[in-house]
Write a structure and sequence with these properties.
Elements (H helix, E strand, L loop, with lengths): L1 H13 L5 H17 L13 H28 L3 H23 L10 H28 L1
Helix pairs in contact: 1-3, 2-3, 3-4, 4-5
């Protein structure tokens, strides 16, 4: 749901309309939610099935990187540094997340990469706050 919300933020921020690609990204999010319901995920297990981990995370990766790509392209085109850096933080978070998805079953300590992934999202939130709300506060003071 996070990246679907981000698609709407992208649409609003860059005054764009949804096309086939954007609807594909929404469908990927819905598909992931459906996949999460399957009992084969074996949520009660300490070691969830590796294959199902790949299956349930594939739509998330496609959706997250797709949204980051859309934001980055439009932000770069319009010289919108706030959203350019937000998209870069999303790319960094996925650079940390994908090794965890692929290799946690062989190298459990790789799960520590979830910490810099989380920090990247915290930085993205700060960049968004600073770039959108802080500028509006300064305008109101003038």
């Amino acid at each position: 749901m996070f990246y679907i919300a981000f698609l709407y933020i992208w649409k609003y921020r860059f005054k764009r309309e949804f096309g086939v690609f954007q609807y594909f990204l929404i469908a990927a999010g819905i598909l992931r939610l459906i996949i999460l319901l399957f009992p084969q995920n074996n949520w009660s297990s300490l070691n969830p099935p590796y294959t199902w981990s790949l299956i349930r995370n594939a739509p998330l990766v496609v959706q997250g990187l797709g949204v980051a790509f859309l934001i980055y392209n439009d932000a770069r085109r319009l010289k919108d540094n706030t959203f350019k850096w937000i998209s870069i933080m999303i790319f960094i978070s996925y650079a940390c997340y994908m090794p965890v998805i692929l290799f946690y079953n062989v190298y459990p300590m790789i799960g520590l990469l979830m910490m810099p992934k989380t920090v990247a999202y915290l930085i993205a939130g700060y960049i968004g706050y600073r770039g959108i709300y802080f500028k509006n506060i300064l305008k109101a003071v003038d």
